[in-house]
Design goal:
The complex is a heterodimer.
Chain A (H helix, E strand, L loop, with lengths): L9 H18 L1 H7 L11 H32 L5 H7 L8 H12 L4 H8 L10 H25 L3 H9 L4 H29 L3 H7 L7 H11 L3 H25 L20 H34 L6 H32 L3 H9 L6 H12 L9 H39 L3 H30 L4 H4 L7 H10 L3 H27 L2
Chain B lengths: L1 H17 L5 E6 L1 H4 L5 H12 L2 E6 L3 H11 L7 E6 H9 L3 E2 L20 E13 L10 H6 L4 E4 L5 H14 L3 H8 L3 E5 L2 H9 L5 E5 L2 H9 L4 E4 L7 E9 L5 H10 L3 H4 L2 H5 L2 E2 L26 H15 L2
Parallel strand pairs in B: 1-2, 1-3, 6-7, 6-8
Antiparallel strand pairs in B: 3-10, 4-10, 5-8, 5-9, 5-10, 5-11
The chains are: A mainly alpha, B alpha/beta.
């Protein structure tokens, strides 16, 4: 919490409480709705192994993703090269891939029938075997390393250029620089990055199963799905959902305790840019950047080639309708998420115990889309046809799932803006909307672009609740893709996957770039 | 605010469709049934040509998702017909008490087993089987024990999230009874991975991730007929194969009861049955002629065992499966 509370006008606070109420509605109410139904009990013999495996893979995914993101983010922060901006944008791509598409992209490179296995076969060596925990981690690092890198990169980019210049003039050595810059930056960004990756990996299910090699790789999310779909044990599913929420709550509380905001003071020239003339650090950064580009780029290239191949066989019917629906849902949910997150940040900054509110919002990441979907279905069905509300509900749930990410990206930026320019704005008597327009908005534009871009792209690729609510003649791109796969049309599905990737990425890129060219 | 406007905007096109004044029949089914290559569009056209009605197919995920959808909606369901449950889901579906008895139970069906049911109308059937690439695999196993003894890689689906996955667990149980657990332990080193659903598994197999994949005896017919590719075959197992019979039934609360009866009767017509093989890639339930490519398929015997297991029996089989593969 940064210093003194901002001047807050009463109505915006009321809207803030309303936004919080909406969050509570999605975190708590569906679980209660399920709990109220009869059930035989939770998960049986699989309960503990599932919790153990979920904790193990989510913790390792978070640690590895963030550990690798540190050198990558630092290299990207201090080097300038052609294609740097493009690479930073492309870092958004894996994160927004539907899980099944990412699995096929990864297998095209790392699988038994993949590029590396083919190369090994030429040398008369057996194929790579990635299945098991290592496969799960490979996929989760592929998804989350880029996200972690972007989060860390923001930390370095928030440091005023003057500081680095001063450090150079004072001829500060490596340890001093580390203590003055890297350490506070890492302390302010690493806990959040760890937390977000942990939460994202925790709710993984199809990926963990497909690459995990068997039931040993069962997550809590799978147990929830089984309870809902196969056993129709709603109360059992609710109990599992509560366990997942508790784990999420613990992780978030831990991360919040560890995290400290870095204070570097205001500047007009933000951005770490240190072209060291020493050869070894430069070479090392180069290796890190190239390795990361290959790790992230090769599976994406495989998806691209596969998709082009699929599109050559013709566009599947219903493609444009699905594209349109997906875009409408994505843009609606982005607007909704943006409104909600700004109101929530406003509320968090202006009440006592705002940190607890933030903690509560983070719980959205630990909710299961199946539980939210089923819970809402049970609640709505007595009153309205769920079909009629399919798209609004999908947009709302997608918005809610993007909220924690947006919150963690935007809030530090808004605190920074307030800290650096708050006094000036007070002197000028800026408050309410004009304060947001003239003080906050210009300062948080890059973060706002990144956060809304993520929200839009995430919503594009989501297949969570739409499956429960989809009316007869409405389908989204992910739904179309799954339906094609289910009818043997793997090539056509790969084509749709490419369109999905391209359109999600275009949305992300537009928002992200729009933010950065302030 | 925005989403209310959005809901209003969304409901306009539906209002338009309703205004045609024809009686409507809502059929809940699974996803692949309604795609442009699935049976849905053709069956809709064929039935609407004779019913003076509007037939709506509404997709609800897979067969298990369809059942859970009906459960969630209960008596308020908009469905007149549920089409896409199968014999492994039938007893759970029956226990819901949502279905009405058939007005005219089918007389003679062309099924590999004797069939008698007063509620569920079979509309197609098929056998589970391991599918392989015959240009790469010569030594094809002819039983689960041979498969377990081989060093072949297979991809299967998880019985907790997939209908064929559940079918496989029931298949091994039916064939081996008390020894099922041992068979799974022996198969463990053959299993490359277990996927959430059929699509992932089949896609991974096509991309060369394994020698064999759990699918249907009819899968090779798809490649042969739709792609002119005869490189896929299904392995015949001496234990017999797990039989999947897909069924439809009428909801007791249907306001279009008579129209629903007509649709259920239409299922055994040539018009309906002749569409099935090349769109749903399953066998018709009548002796309607099969497309040419089907002649090359293996025609195994059904494995003997409980065709319609109870929920408890299924849970036990799934738990045994998980335990055996978690060692």
């Amino acid at each position: 919490m940064g210093g003194r509370p901002e001047p807050v006008t009463r109505p915006s606070k009321i809207f803030g409480w309303a936004a919080l109420f909406a969050v509570a509605l999605l975190v708590i109410v569906p679980v209660l709705a399920l709990l109220s139904k009869a059930g035989t009990g939770g998960g049986g013999a699989l309960f503990w192994p599932a919790i153990r495996f979920t904790l193990l893979q989510a913790s390792l995914s978070a640690l590895i993703s963030v550990a690798l993101a540190v050198p990558l983010a630092k290299a990207l922060a201090r080097r300038r090269f052609t294609g740097r901006r493009l690479m930073i944008s492309l870092l958004g791509a894996p994160f927004i891939l539907p899980s099944i598409v990412a699995v096929f992209g990864l297998l095209a490179i790392w699988g038994r029938g993949g590029v590396f296995s083919d190369l090994l076969a030429m040398a008369d060596l057996g194929p790579l075997d990635i299945y098991g925990l290592k496969g799960v981690l490979l996929a989760h690092v592929f998804f989350n390393l880029p996200l972690a890198t972007r989060l860390l990169l923001q930390g370095w980019q928030a440091v005023p250029a003057e500081h680095f210049r001063l450090a150079t003039q004072l001829d500060l050595g490596r340890p001093a620089r580390f203590r003055l810059f890297d350490l506070p930056i890492l302390r302010s960004t690493v806990p959040t990055a760890l937390l977000l990756v942990f939460m994202l990996a925790m709710s993984s299910f199809a990926v963990a199963l497909a690459l995990g090699g068997g039931p040993k790789a069962s997550t809590i999310e799978l147990a929830i799905y089984q309870a809902l779909r196969f056993e129709f044990d709603l109360a059992g599913a609710a109990r599992l959902a509560i366990v997942q929420l508790l784990i999420g709550l613990t992780a978030a509380a831990l991360a919040f305790r560890l995290g400290r905001g870095a204070v570097f003071g205001g500047s007009l020239h933000i951005g770490y840019h240190e072209e060291s003339r020493q050869i070894w650090p430069r070479l090392l950064d180069g290796v890190v950047i190239v390795a990361a580009a290959l790790f992230i780029g090769l599976p994406l290239l495989a998806i691209l080639l596969n998709g082009l191949n699929g599109l050559l066989t013709g566009l599947p019917p219903g493609l444009f309708g699905a594209l349109k629906t997906s875009l409408i849902v994505a843009l609606t949910s982005t607007l909704l998420a943006l409104g909600l997150v700004l109101l929530l940040i406003h509320l968090i900054n202006s009440v006592q115990g705002g940190g607890r509110i933030e903690l509560f919002v983070m719980l959205l990441m630990a909710t299961s889309p199946f539980v939210i979907g089923t819970g809402l279905f049970i609640l709505l069905n007595p009153f309205v046809s769920p079909f009629a509300l399919a798209l609004p509900i999908t947009a709302l749930v997608n918005a809610a799932l993007a909220l924690p990410l947006m919150l963690r990206i935007l809030r530090p930026a808004m605190q920074r803006a307030e800290r650096d320019y708050g006094q000036l704005a007070d002197t000028l008597g800026l408050s309410g909307w004009s304060r947001f327009r003239w003080l906050t908005w210009p300062q948080i534009r890059p973060e706002l672009g990144f956060a809304t871009g993520l929200a839009a792209a995430l919503s594009m690729g989501d297949l969570g609740v739409i499956t429960l609510f989809a009316p007869p003649d409405t389908q989204t791109l992910p739904l179309l893709m799954y339906r094609l796969m289910g009818s043997y049309r793997m090539d056509a599905a790969a084509g749709v996957a490419l369109i999905l990737l391209a359109s999600s990425f275009a949305l992300f890129y537009l928002f992200d770039k729009g933010g950065r060219h302030a | 605010m925005k989403n209310i406007l959005f809901a209003a905007a969304l409901s306009l096109p539906f209002g338009g469709v309703m205004a045609q004044n024809l009686p409507e029949l809502n059929v809940y089914t699974y996803d692949s049934f309604v795609t442009d290559w699935g049976p849905g569009p053709k069956i809709k056209a064929a039935f609407e040509a004779e019913c003076t009605c509007t037939l709506n197919f509404i997709a609800a995920g897979d067969g298990a998702a369809l059942l859970s959808r009906l459960r969630l909606e209960g008596a308020r369901s908009k469905a007149d017909i549920a089409l896409g449950l199968d014999n492994s889901l039938m007893e759970q579906a029956r226990a819901l008490g949502l279905f009405a008895p058939l007005a005219a139970p089918p007389q003679e069906l062309n099924l590999p087993v004797a069939w008698q049911d007063d509620t569920f109308m079979p509309y197609d059937w098929g056998y589970l089987a391991f599918v392989y690439d015959n240009t790469r695999l010569q030594d094809v196993p002819d039983s689960f024990t041979a498969l377990a003894a081989s060093d072949l890689d297979i991809i299967i689906q998880d019985p907790r999230s997939s209908t064929p996955g559940l079918g496989l667990a029931l298949w091994v149980k039916a064939a081996y009874g008390d020894q099922a657990s041992g068979i799974w332990a022996d198969l463990a080193d053959n299993i490359v991975t277990v996927t959430k659903g059929w699509s992932e598994a089949y896609g991974m197999f096509l991309n060369g991730e394994a020698d064999m994949v759990l699918s249907y005896t009819t899968s090779p017919a798809y490649h042969l007929i739709a792609e002119g590719d005869n490189s896929k075959s299904a392995a015949a197992f001496i234990e017999g194969h797990y039989l999947q019979i897909e069924v439809a039934a009428k909801l007791a609360n249907s306001p279009e009861s008579e129209l629903a009866d007509r649709f259920l009767a239409f299922i055994t017509s040539d018009a309906f049955q002749s569409i099935i093989p090349e769109t749903n890639w399953m066998y018709p339930v009548t002796d309607t002629p099969l497309p040419e490519g089907f002649a090359s398929l293996i025609t195994p015997k059904p494995v003997s065992g409980d065709l319609t297991p109870s929920a408890t029996a299924k849970s036990a089989v799934v738990e045994e499966w998980v335990a055996a593969l978690s060692q």
